[in-house]
Amino acid sequence: MEHQTDSMIQQKNTMNSLNRRNFLKRSLLGAATVSFSARSWSQVAGANSAIRSAVVGFAGRGGSHISGLGNLSAQGVRMVGLCDVDSNVLRGGVSKLDKEGTRVDGYTDIRKLLERKDLDVISIATPNHWHALATIWSVQAGKDVYVEKPVCHNVWEGRKMVEAARKYKKIVQTGTQCRSSSGIREAVQWVQGGNLGKIIAARGLCYKPRGTIGRVEQDQPIPDSINYDLWCGPAPMDPLRRARLHYDWHWIWDFGNGDLGNQGIHQMDIARWFLGENDLSPRVMSVGGRVGYVDDGQTPNTQFVYHEYDSAPLIFEVRGLRENASSKSMDKFPDAETGGSVGVVIHCEGGYVVVPNYDSAIAYDKDRKKIKQWRGASDHFENFINAVRSRKTEDLSADIHEGFVSSSLCHTGNISHRLGSKRSPNEIREEIKGSRHALETYERMQAHLEANEIDLNNEKLTLGPMLSMNPNRRRFIGNTEANALLTRHYRRPYVVPEVV
User: Which class for 421: exposed (0-12), middle (13-18), buried (19 or more C-beta within 10 A)?
Assistant: First the structure.
């Protein structure tokens, strides 16, 4: 076990003093893939036994993991470790818990943390590109896992996470906390019971302000507090070419998945829940682009993804620009009087249901009259801990398979975008006119961008191809380029294993 010391947490990264040649040469180091053999120590048993936990990555969402697990001390959960590649973040987290009366050990490298035999669960809130490998290493090391959304950076590694959880018989919860909402669950059951007739379309919304991340003209220095090799992990260790290392990785393809994977995974998951679909869609396409400014971001800030399920289409909309060029507020979806900037709308024959937040839903008839409302949620972390004790995957609100499927809907939508080409408004409209839902969504998108003074004949959007998939094989049909984007090249030794 590695204890917290000043020498450990003050590990210096001298990357910013290296020239480009040495930087790239260093990125090739690492000869073999790291793996863990599953330990045979006993699982947690009994309602009163301690569950020893650790959080990996807590510069952002991980802080909620620390408090969420910390709130379960009465249920026997005890924090014993924190792990972060930023020594400043690590030192601050360890010190804060120490002042609150909880002594924990600090780690820079997750592999050292996983060597602990007195550790039962790992909670992962790293950037997206680390989720799969950290989860697989953890279950191989005998730990149960709570992993943030999206659970994977790409489709292939998400499937490997499911395989690992099953092979090592581990409890793996996805951080889509809406699945622990009794209110949303009851609304799903009510709609699936036919109370509003057939579902016509399920729509997720992420109308969320996302300003420019700026543009830099040269490589940026890596903060001395960060072990950049570990930060990059499975991704390429290229020079930093954005102003801010933290958070803005969401908008860079090597690390993040745009707002589809950042916020949209929650709403995509709820929409799929209503549809009752348990696998990837057989057809998917995207329309969108990064418009309104020029910066170092790569992912779209305006986009809609169209998943053509047999039951009904699942549509997801991303808007990062405000309502119009002079407004400080965001758009709201026309039918969603109760919210509608970030949420879900389920269109049915006899009305519609709005899910405006993480714990409630409201049903309306065709005349927009409210006819029913649901509210309520239980603690997602507590649900995870209860399943850790019961050893029953079916006790989880959001088993890793659910997270894998919903995350993959984000990824396949982005694959269509990345394979697309810039097209004029008329060309896009002509291409999608066969679907009234896609056409209506596009026309509202176009009006929104025009209100932001964007001329789409000059600043063209990208029309992605309609991709056909075999959901059973999780492979696109007849498209080598699309299949290549289902996975990535992994940097040694941070390689997601082919056989888990």
Answer: exposed
